[in-house]
Amino acid sequence: MEGGERRVPVRLRVTDVSKYFPGVQALKAVSLEFGVGEVHALVGENGAGKSTLIKILSGVYQPDSGSVELDGRVVTIPNPHAANSLGIETVPQEIHLVPLLSVAENIFLGRQPRRRVLIDEARRNKEARRILDDLEVQIDPEMPAGGLSAAKRQMVSIARALSTDARVIIFDEPTASLSQPEATVLFATIRRLKRRGMSVIYISHRLQEIFEIADRVTVLRDSAVIDTLDVEGANVDQIIAMMIGRERSQLFVRSEFTQPGDTVLKVEGLSVGAFVRDVSFEVRAGELLTLAGLVGSGRTEVVRAIYGADRIESGRIDFLGRPVKIRSPTDSLGLGIGLAPEDRRKDGLVLPMSVRENIVLAAINSPKNPLARPWYSIRRVREVAARFVQILHIKLARLDQPARALSGGNQQKVVIAKWMATDSRLLILDEPTQGVDVGAKAEIYKLIGEFLRNGMAILMVSSDLSEVVAVSDRVLVMHRGRIVAEFDRQGISEEGVARAAVGQAMNSVA
Amino acid sequence: MGTPLRESDVAEKLAGLEHRRVSVAKAVLSGGRRYLTFVLLLFLLACASVLSPSFLSANNLVSVAYGSSVLGIVALGQTMLLITGNFDMSVAGVIGAAGIATLLLMPFGAIPAIFAGLGVGLAVGFLNGFIVIRTNASPFLVTLGTQLLLYGAGLAITQSQTLYGDDPFFNWIGQGVVLGVPVTLLAFLALAALFQVVLARTPYGRCLYAIGLNREAARLSGVPVNRIRLMSFMLSGLMAALAGVALASRLNSITANAGLGYDFLSIIAAVLGGTSLFGGRGGAARTVAGTLVLGLLDNVLVLLGMTFAFEDIVRGAVFLLVVGFDRLSREER
Amino acid sequence: MGGRLRLVSRLLPSGNQRAITVLVIGLIVFFSLTTPVTFVSTANAANLLRQMSFNAVIALGVVVVMAGGGLDISVGAVMSMSAAVVMGFQPHGVPVAVVMALAFGVAVGAINGVMVAWFDIVPFVATLGTMTIASGLVHEYSHDMPIPGANVAFTVLGGGNLGPIPVPVLFMIGLAIVIHVTMTHTPFGRAVYAVGGDFEAARLAGINVALTRFSTYVISGFCSSLAGILLASELNTSSTQLGIDTPLLILAAVIMGGASLLGGRGTAVGALLGVLALGLLATGLDGLGVQTAQQTIIRAVIFVAIVVLDVVSVGRLWARLRLRTGLSRGREATPM
């Protein structure tokens, strides 16, 4: 289903492409056209299918069904090099350049021009200079690639794509690490590419950008195409509505919103790293405060800094009414703060270790915890672990089995169990239900409800709008490192949060 | 509305499928790996007894084990450190330095002298740990440097001469016998038992594995990672010092380069026993087995009439074979 | 003048290496002023260069391995065994002996390369294993006796002179030129830096990373055996005592000259400078009458300082370059 008239010839056509992974349908019969000299944006929430589609086009995955046509001919793309030879290039989110090699070498890495045995450096540098000049970018091709800023690295990546006669360029979240002026330069470059007939596929979360640079936009949701619109004539609300969808899951709506108690955590003027600035808020006992916003808006940085995992540039933290200096997670543990990190497999669990050991890992270092005695009684550990497994309905074969073998939902429950075993006063949850199946989600929400009833304070980071709206007492929206909006129970709405997240605040209450 | 799906979860599902298919083969291999060392041990014992009927006598076995006990003590300390994913090349220098310190201070009495020697080990361990943790430099290179430093200091102090020492209590450590078992061997086995218990039954021990398997996850779980790593470096130094004291006691003398080769050998013993250089795997009992395999290997070669040189060759070959087997059976990390 | 400056900055691309050059010059000046005997003389220089050339040849191979992100501690043992082989095969004629010795080095390098590149065995472990085997082989093959030389012509390689220049120094310079050109101007050399510098970038660029890593180990093995041949020729004998200190010394020299355990850096010139600096230090201290013990301590302190500085500066540089753009190493860090 396409919108708008066909004004430009089609370069790349995807017809009825589907992709299935064990347990999940990643793409459902997606059909799209990408025109010559056109910027076609793909938007959708995390997991909507954008990544999978891109990976199929760049040869990383193979479609289960459907076809891909390039300039009218059906093509197969068995691997990334095939994609490159067909002229399909990607400018990835994470750009890999060899730091000590020159820019020109990076552009031509693996296919440097040769004169007999040796590399023809003069020719290579000249060619690189020509491409960079074409892009109207000021980079000395002979300087080492290591010292470049993110924006310049991206330019080098684009240059590399152009050095191979590309006809389709895919940009994956290109402005994630760019400043406003740098993004403007990027757009000028993309327009230049357009004028030369390049087909540009542009993936981004940032809707204002779409309006600035794209000709057409396709919204993906739940692995299918919802609609393709001409950007001219479309508006933000329309697109947001398509991304969110009409149905809201009634998985769980909190039945009771208790009156919160004393302030457990107070943060004032927190600045972290390079771009999180001046964040202040409070969380009270029995209250669930959610930090909403786009990926990269600084929410994880804030919670990690509070927890002591990263350094604080400036700011003050009060816990249970007293100012505290948290220099490491060990300090947090001592105070009674727990963190379920965003990447549970990498940072939340020791995957090769058994489930029961993971459950008690924090407790055994927690002062005054019965499990922290010098003698580690396997029997007692087993009891404690078994108790939590039962309470949380963690599905496993044996307590001894490695955490690696559990499903996403069960793994998250193990992480939560770890903090339940330490009797925390404040629990920080970073994307707790991402990658978790519906049933486990409901159980986790129920748990959260119980924690709140027992007086725990919870600080949650979430990108799932329906979740944010369903379970939060209050919501703070972050955008580019600052808090831009606050919603209380009455004022929460998905549209409101989504708008604030993309920088279009409706009712910002600082 | 469906559940938002993360790329990593898709990868996870894919991996899960792969995992199930390959895991049967891996299960066999990794189960085998666990017993490989013991199998090797039994195999060597069998060979030895075939070559020399009296090999399996209690006396002889004790003597064989005794021969490996100094190395074993070093290997035990090394193992504790290896589990956290670090290692200690300075043991070769600590052995000499501790022995020298002990013999030098012998005139003040055996006990103070021994404490001095052990103190050297603790101090070196602290230094190693401090530098590695603070600067994030390679443990290999830093401890190689401290090894050289100790060796040089030892040379300077002893003027490249051999030091001699004699004291009844002191001698007893290296040469004494209790109920037919040499003291050093008893110490080795007792320490192994102690470490095994610590590894299995104390928070410190369990945290060692966690740190080795996933340092960041352990840190985020509140484990005092740097403190534990420092303690492990000191423990390794302490064990090397103890080995030095025992060696000096056994020979009644010590030279600056007495510890030559113990750095690589202790790692080989630990790895043979199943300790992984990446950290997170290993155990005291297994290291005992690995040490004994090395010792038996030597014995068998002697029985076969082969020269000393062959020891190195066979050791190296067995080491690589075990490591290769390890690689095949190990899960992807 | 501009042209010469350009040459200097191309030969010494990193600050590290310029610092070392300054250090070398400084050491020469220092020792000439403080040594009772004349420090700077043609004879002295020729002798110093000859002695350092053996280590330099090995260092040139090691620098290639480390640029590719690897590590080879078997170099000393390979050198020693090659020396034994070349002496032991002399009855068959010098050319045969040389070929056999080189073949040995290449074979060990190939074994190391296969283990690291295709079996994914940690370089430290792989080369530890081959080191152990090779040391044993030396003892076994030579039956623990030095193997005397039978052929006077052979000693030219290590002990002879071409005019004022010792022959092994010519080998060293020649090898350095070959390695320098390879690393700077051939696709293979640049691929080595790519593999060591950002594994993922190299892989994505279509470089055959396994073959590249394998080749670096073969080169290292070859260089070690060449060094062994030259050394055996100079001494006109082989001995089981050769090469024991070598890995540490070479590592120190190569890291001083700009290489790093983290991979992706290091040049032929830097390696030579590092070996020269350490050689000067040793000779100078000898001339001053400093004992072996003190020398060892001094070397150790310098080594640790280099290692720490290496990580602190290179590591931080690396981290800054990569973290700025959220890069990953793309490969599990080695336990080293």
Name its key features.
heterotrimer, A: 510 residues, alpha/beta, Rossmann fold, 4 domains, 6-stranded mixed sheet, 32% helix, C: 336 residues, mainly alpha, ABC transporter involved in vitamin B12 uptake, BtuC, two-stranded antiparallel sheet, two-stranded antiparallel ribbon, 73% helix, globular
Which helices and strands, and how do they pair?
The complex is a heterotrimer of chains A (510), B (333) and C (336).
Chain A: E1 10-21, E2 24-35, E3 39-43, H1 50-57, E4 65-70, E5 73-75, H2 80-86, E6 88-91, H3 103-107, E7 114-115, E8 118-119, H4 121-134, H5 150-162, E9 168-172, H6 180-195, E10 199-203, H7 207-213, E11 216-221, E12 224-230, H8 236-244, E13 263-272, E14 276-284, E15 288-293, H9 299-307, E16 314-319, E17 322-324, H10 329-335, E18 337-340, H11 344-348, H12 355-360, H13 378-392, H14 408-420, E19 426-430, H15 438-453, E20 457-461, H16 465-471, E21 474-479, E22 482-488, H17 494-501
Parallel strand pairs in A: 3-10, 3-11, 6-9, 9-10, 15-20, 15-21, 18-19, 19-20
Antiparallel strand pairs in A: 1-2, 1-4, 4-5, 7-8, 11-12, 13-14, 13-16, 16-17, 21-22
Chain B: H1 7-51, H2 58-83, H3 91-104, H4 110-135, H5 139-158, E1 163-164, H6 168-175, E2 177-178, E3 181-182, H7 183-201, H8 203-213, H9 215-220, H10 225-251, E4 253-254, H11 262-272, H12 284-303, H13 308-329
Antiparallel strand pairs in B: 1-4, 2-3
Helix pairs in contact in B: 1-12, 1-13, 2-7, 2-8, 2-10, 2-11, 2-12, 3-4, 3-5, 3-10, 4-5, 4-10, 6-10, 7-8, 7-12, 11-12, 12-13
Chain C: H1 2-11, H2 15-34, H3 42-67, H4 75-88, H5 94-117, H6 123-142, E1 147-148, H7 156-159, E2 161-162, E3 165-166, H8 167-185, H9 187-197, H10 199-204, H11 209-235, E4 237-238, H12 246-256, H13 268-287, H14 292-323
How would you characterize this protein structure?
The complex is a heterotrimer of chains A (510), B (333) and C (336). Chain A is built from 17 helices and 22 strands. Chain A has helices at residues 50-57, 80-86, 103-107, 121-134, 150-162, 180-195, 207-213, 236-244, 299-307, 329-335, 344-348, 355-360, 378-392, 408-420, 438-453, 465-471, 494-501; strands at 10-21, 24-35, 39-43, 65-70, 73-75, 88-91, 114-115, 118-119, 168-172, 199-203, 216-221, 224-230, 263-272, 276-284, 288-293, 314-319, 322-324, 337-340, 426-430, 457-461, 474-479, 482-488. In chain A, helix 8 packs across helix 17 (494-501). The model of chain A is unreliable at 506-510 (pLDDT under 50). Helices cover 77% and strands 2% of the residues of chain B. The radius of gyration of chain B is 22 Å and the shape is globular. Chain C has 336 residues and is mainly α. Chain C has one domain (42-323): ABC transporter involved in vitamin B12 uptake, BtuC. Chain C has helices at residues 2-11, 15-34, 42-67, 75-88, 94-117, 123-142, 156-159, 167-185, 187-197, 199-204, 209-235, 246-256, 268-287, 292-323, and strands spanning 147-148, 161-162, 165-166, 237-238. Chain C has a two-stranded antiparallel ribbon with strand order 1-4. In chain C, strands 2-3 form a two-stranded antiparallel ribbon. In chain C, helix 3 packs across helix 9 and helix 9 packs across helix 11 (209-235). Chain C starts with a helix and ends in a 13-residue tail after the last helix. The model of chain C is unreliable at 323-336 (pLDDT under 50). At the A-B interface, helix 10 and helix 11 of A face helix 1, helix 8 and helix 9 of B.
